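Lab notebook: predicted structure, single chain.

Context: the supervisor wants predicted structures on file for every construct in the current expression panel, including those that have not yet been purified. This is the next one on the list. No modifications to the sequence; it matches the entry in the shared construct table.
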Amino acid sequence: MLKNWTNIFIYHIKNNKFFTVLNILGLSIGIAGLIFAILYWNEEHAYDQWNPEKDKIYNVMNDFGGGNIWTTNSPVPGRMLKETTSYLNQYCYYRPFYTKETIQYNGKIELVDKIFSAERSFFSFFPFEFIQGSAKTALHDRNSMALSEEAAAKIFKNENPMGKQVKYADQIFVIRGVYKMPEKSSVMPAVVTPIVEEELENNKDNWGFNYGLMLKLKKQSDTTAVIQNLDKIFLEDNYKKQAKAEGLSIEQFIKQYGDPIKSRLLPLTKARLYQGNSAFPELNANLQFLKIVMGLSILILILSIVNYINMATANAVKRAKEVGVRKIIGASKNQIIAQFVFETTLITLFSVLLAMVIVELSLPFYNSFLGKNLMLIGTQFYLQLVLIFIFVIIVSGVFPAVYISNFETLKVLKGNFSRSKSGVWLRNGMLVLQFSIATLFIIGSFIVYKQVNFMADKDLGFNGAQIMDISFKPQKGKNQYERYKAIKQEILKIQGVEAVSAGMFSIGSNDNSWQGLHYKANKEVITQQMPMDFGQLNLLGIKILKGRDLDPKLATDSISSALLNEVAAKTLQEKDPVNKEVVFGGQKFKVVGIVKNFHYVGLEYRIAPMIFFHIKSFDWMTNNMRNITVKISPDQMPETIAAIDKFWKSKVDQEYPFEYDFVDKNFARTYKKYQDQRNLFALLNVVVILIAVFGLFALASFSMERRLREIAIRKTLGAETNTLLKELSKQYVVFCIIGFLIGIVPAYLFMQKWLENFASRIDIPFLPFAVAFVSLLFLTLTIVLAKAYQVTKVDVLKYLKYE
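Prediction complete. Output recorded below exactly as produced.
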């Protein structure tokens, strides 16, 4: 039986080579697209799945209200929670970022990225596999250091690192463990040190939110009780103490400063896909992009299957008599269905194999696009591939097979099977669906393109061109601000340097710090602090709308003067905020100017309230400077940068390499993910149109070839070519219009939802809809008229000689 089915299958392939190729190519493109999406999906969902403690580990987050949720914490609640509750197994504070520093061994200096600092309980939360040493002893004391296998090889080459001493951050550390780096983890450090413990000890009563905090609960069901305890700690040890210090009741304090911060717990298993501030240094996945990739890939596969069903049902007419004969000689309906499903299985198998080839060849480009290292391996992936295979067979095979098996024996043998309209309606419906999906992709691609270009062209409120943001590493025992003043004078002497300043912020980065801004009886406003040196705003091209900038000639401007941006100024609810007094960080400031709003991070974020003051306003800030800003002339830029590089290496830091970035390029990276979405939409748009063209051409060919005798009769009766072309193409134009009208609704809703992610966004214009309609109509007419013109040139005698 299978041999007979195979022979029939091969026979039909030989007689329909072109349409078989279209079928296989269309399905393979759809399957390949879904494979790409699944690889990306699996990658992002695999994070922390290796961790045996994953279900008990949570990150503490803090809800400030108004959708403002931080993943950083104060040093206070972890210790107090451990002392006052029985729900907690362990807690661990950590720096929520990696550092890039030099590590010295035997006089040799190695620059190491991904240096991570956490409390000594870290390896009980992330139990990496240790090659040397163990998780229990790797962070034995504050001078212990653990290395990844790769970092150990980089620093020590072929030497055994255990027990060796290295110099890092002007301290001596002893190597007590070497571990294997996990494949997919929220924390994947090259180096782990407990250096953060000293900071925590010095700030044990400080309510500044600067550290990540992990909790390991005894039971998952204890999350509600833990949240209640965290909220209680904040109320009792923060709000009530502040209220008492100001002579207010807790009710009065809440009325004046707002509701207390509410705690939340983020499960480790969901941390990677959390949409918000990143809890861990590996940062979050772009969940929206992930969903878009998966959703669009599924749509493309559906489009490919629709194509297959269309061509299979259209081709069924050619095989109707075959089905009738088989029924006459005793074949059952189920046997006929099984035969056609068998043929679909073979087609799908060839399509899957071709899809795997396409993926394998394209994977390097896909990995480069995503910045990933995806591979076609893993039990999970092959199981998913089998499920795709089965799904395609069921959807694209069973439906046409049932349709074909329902042909009535006597009718099809007499040749009047074409009177049934069900197959025609099915194919027409599928064609309309194709036009709808194509409409969605064309409109979506156009709007994404417009939004990304809008972001690229928008006035950001600052000028980052020719402005270098230089990394300024601290040196033990030396005041950073005093070092900066000396360096500034030397850099200004270099030819091509136009201005030098500094700020404890870096536009386009995630480096930011926030505190509460108070004015009269208004509620506290969480405000981004922007400490800076004189001239920083002018250097960055940030405009002052009212008042003045900080002036080095005025002694008070380095102590108690501040500027607010427009957003912060509005919170004062004053017609003229200049010369008003505000309280920030427990210190009084006089507002001397209003700064024009500018975008600090990405354009998808709302501009935050900001306060600008001199670095020396707070003593502790003078040692926390990390950046120097240098504006250089566009003329002879390479020579100027080379001169700064030479000066830096010889006079500033001989150990750490000279690192810098241009401010405009740094900011441009904040919307790179949206540029990726634009490019993805453009690529998928081409794929969708290509598949739709396959389907339309095949369906038009089948449809018109069945009408060759009708066309011959019409030509004999005197019908002109123009009349025939109009008659043959008008139904496809109608289907195109119907499909377009159906497709514009989901396209509008989908893109409206996507644009909600942007604080600065375009309004959906009419043009994309017009472009989509014209494009679809043009493609439809080009394909259909080309085929229609071909069939109008039929040999009349060939089709009428037996009439």
